[in-house]
């Protein structure tokens, strides 16, 4: 039964490839239309369309507006055996940490389905990111797994993908304004669990610190909303003075000591950081002004990054399963290609609180 489901998309590609290899379709001949394929294989239009798109991406066919798909006059063995590729677009490529686990999760799943994973690193360059998005489908990628850094910079391209039903899935983030499929962590629950942990330790004056604009980054926004809901559920007042957004833009790392001093002056006993990297910066600044974690202030991060061991910081944090996020993203793309899904898929992977020595009980 599972093989039958898997064949929805590949069956059409294999059938057409077999016809080409047997020279039942010759260069310049028109291929069956989407409608003819829909009837013959009893599949949806998107499945038939994706099968033809796959052959186009392999360089085997070309389209004529209003006439259909035709076998290329320049096909060769190298195109016939061209592997099926899914592209991953990410900001950075690390040998350790979150991105390598995204890659491993996606790569393992795709390999099991007969696909290869192409890694495209933008180095944080928004123009390079946009260029990758524009070119991946043109160079033969059957689908894209995309870690977005700036929605506004690529909104037009993503809208085009959505309207054309091109298989693309977001990781780490999602867009309220565009119903693209995504695979993310349960950031809301992460913010909630971190806050609840501190509350159970007796903390009521808890700050939330973010280096970026809280509202503009969905993952950070969800962590913040989890923080707010945990305070509300425990009957603790949410104070605007305890919330720091766009830390680096407003004061830079040089002014972080003033921000932290102010929080201590107004009674903050614990801090939830946007992520572990910001938490590490907070620890360094606090140490420079002779404030001890956790004796003077408790601190919780987010991500459980491997660098914590290298810098010898025993940080309580929220662990994300990056491998599973990458794997689920890959599955969404393949399900889309095989015609199993045509609407938005929302995959939310559970998180886990890792309790270490950066928090202390006030009871």
Automatic annotation (TrEMBL):
<dbReference type="InterPro" id="IPR036390">
    <property type="entry name" value="WH_DNA-bd_sf"/>
</dbReference>
<keyword id="KW-0804">Transcription</keyword>
<keyword id="KW-0238">DNA-binding</keyword>
<dbReference type="InterPro" id="IPR046335">
    <property type="entry name" value="LacI/GalR-like_sensor"/>
</dbReference>
<dbReference type="InterPro" id="IPR028082">
    <property type="entry name" value="Peripla_BP_I"/>
</dbReference>
<dbReference type="InterPro" id="IPR036388">
    <property type="entry name" value="WH-like_DNA-bd_sf"/>
</dbReference>
<protein>
    <submittedName>
        <fullName>GntR family transcriptional regulator</fullName>
    </submittedName>
</protein>
<feature type="domain" description="HTH gntR-type">
    <location>
        <begin position="6"/>
        <end position="74"/>
    </location>
</feature>
<dbReference type="Pfam" id="PF13377">
    <property type="entry name" value="Peripla_BP_3"/>
</dbReference>
<dbReference type="InterPro" id="IPR000524">
    <property type="entry name" value="Tscrpt_reg_HTH_GntR"/>
</dbReference>
<dbReference type="Pfam" id="PF00392">
    <property type="entry name" value="GntR"/>
</dbReference>
<keyword id="KW-0805">Transcription regulation</keyword>
């Amino acid at each position: 039964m599972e093989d039958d489901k898997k064949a929805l998309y590949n069956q059409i590609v294999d059938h057409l490839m077999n016809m080409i290899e047997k020279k039942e379709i010759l260069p310049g001949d028109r291929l069956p239309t989407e409608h003819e394929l829909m009837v013959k294989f009893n599949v949806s239009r998107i499945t038939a369309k994706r099968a033809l798109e796959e052959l186009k991406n392999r360089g085997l066919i070309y389209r004529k507006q209003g006439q259909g798909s035709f076998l290329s006059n320049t096909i060769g063995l190298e195109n016939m055996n061209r592997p099926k590729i899914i592209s991953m677009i990410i900001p950075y490529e690390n040998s350790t940490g979150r991105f390598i686990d995204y890659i491993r999760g996606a790569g393992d799943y795709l390999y099991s389905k007969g696909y290869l994973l192409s890694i495209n690193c933008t180095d944080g360059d928004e123009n390079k990111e946009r260029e990758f998005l524009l070119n991946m489908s043109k160079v033969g990628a059957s689908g894209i797994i995309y870690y977005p850094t700036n929605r506004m910079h690529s909104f037009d391209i993503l809208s085009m993908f959505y309207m054309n039903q091109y298989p693309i899935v977001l990781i780490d983030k999602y867009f309220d304004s565009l119903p693209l499929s995504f695979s993310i962590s349960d950031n809301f629950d992460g913010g909630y669990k971190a806050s609840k942990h501190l509350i159970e330790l007796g903390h009521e004056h808890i700050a939330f610190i973010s280096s970026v604009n809280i509202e503009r980054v969905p993952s950070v926004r969800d962590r913040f909303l989890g923080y707010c809901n945990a305070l509300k559920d425990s009957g603790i007042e949410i104070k605007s003075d305890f919330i720091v957004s766009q830390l680096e833009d407003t004061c830079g790392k040089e002014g972080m000591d003033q921000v932290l001093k102010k929080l201590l002056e107004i009674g903050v006993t614990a801090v939830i950081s946007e992520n572990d990297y910001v938490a590490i910066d907070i620890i360094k600044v606090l140490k420079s002004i002779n404030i001890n974690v956790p004796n003077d202030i408790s601190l919780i991060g987010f991500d459980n990054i491997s660098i914590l061991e290298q810098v010898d910081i025993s940080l309580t944090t929220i662990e994300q399963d990056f491998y599973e996020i990458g794997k689920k993203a890959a599955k969404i793309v393949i399900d889309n290609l095989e015609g199993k899904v045509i609407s938005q898929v929302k995959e939310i992977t559970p998180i886990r609180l890792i309790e270490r020595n950066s928090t202390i009980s006030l009871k």
